[in-house]
Design brief:
Layout: H1 9-21, E1 28-31, H2 35-48, E2 53-57, H3 71-78, E3 81-82, H4 114-122, H5 125-141, H6 145-154, H7 172-177, H8 185-196, H9 200-203, H10 205-234, E4 238-240, E5 246-248, H11 249-265, E6 270-273, E7 277-279, E8 285-293, H12 295-299, E9 306-313, E10 316-324, E11 329-334, E12 338-341, E13 344-345, H13 362-369
Parallel strand pairs: 1-2, 2-3, 6-8
Antiparallel strand pairs: 4-5, 6-7, 8-9, 9-10, 10-11, 11-12, 12-13
Helix pairs in contact: 1-2, 5-8, 10-11
Amino acid sequence: MDPDPETPIDETVRALEDVVRSGKVRYVGCSNFLAYQVARAIGRSEALGVVRFDSVQPRYNLLFREIERELLPLCREEGIGVIPYNPIAGGLLSGKHNRDSGPEEGSRFTLGTAAERYQDRYWHEAMFETVEQLRPIANDAGMALPEMAVAWVLANPAVTAPIIGASRPEQLDDTLKAAEAPMNAELKKTLDSAHRAIPARGRSTLVSELAELLQIARRAAVIAGEVIMPLYAAGTAVELKADRTPVTIADRNAELAIREFLARECPGHGILGEEFGETPGDGRHRWILDPIDGTKSFIHHVPLFGTLVALERDGVPVAGVIACHAVGETASAAQGLGAHLNGEPCHVSATSEIREATITMTSFSRMLRGARRA
């Protein structure tokens, strides 16, 4: 199961306790939880005296090793089984794919709704370069590339067993050989070194990209605050829009400043703003801007106003920030990175204090619901 940002973890573990007590399952586990989410779930299970997670199912392979930093040490200490998926990176570590000719029909990179997800994860130059580095290493070791990839996953003492997938029976010939003999330490060291040559952006392309874009969103919100707060302190003048509704000068000035910033940082991205409408872009990425939601509060010097900077990708909100400048509160979220309040991981409900700071919560709420592993 993936983490549900809208359901308190206490409710989740209590429900799983009921399932175990009813005899429907013996043990429960989770998939795609970050380390802090697993740790918190275990802590709440212990506090409530209910069943805890006994296994995790993360993504792990030679091209994606982020779980080694926190999740795997936690699992070893807590005695949690690790059953990783994608040990051959959706087939990229089979060595059969060619970047120039495109994905092979019938592979994970072309099938249904998973195709885009797998291409986002692995179909990048850095990944192909690493596969080419690994190919001669496998030849020297007398192993097929997928056999070596699975054997390397098995060589991690925190791993219980990888999940092997195949679309044809013969594809299992190489991967199952990985279980016949443990990988020697020298070969593992060589493979570890090959991974360190992958740029961080190449190891987890989608998550890394969204992390960078979320930083851009945060900086855009800071820029808005730098425009807004001096005018707030000075008691900014009020203008009327064409429909006779009030608008502060700060709305327009802040949006212009953000637009100029985004045009420099993200050329080609579209922008849709409350004050100046839509600027078309590449058709995939569109920034949603709404500085100073709650104009009446702003006019009356009630510090319940904020700036929304969110990014849509293919029409789906994937990253964004709400900053309540006057009280110094900032909430952010992105797919694969979870939700944060003032830089600290939080459950979505923890952002309720700044919900009153904006009346444009629909897009941000949708984005928060999507803040989970891609």
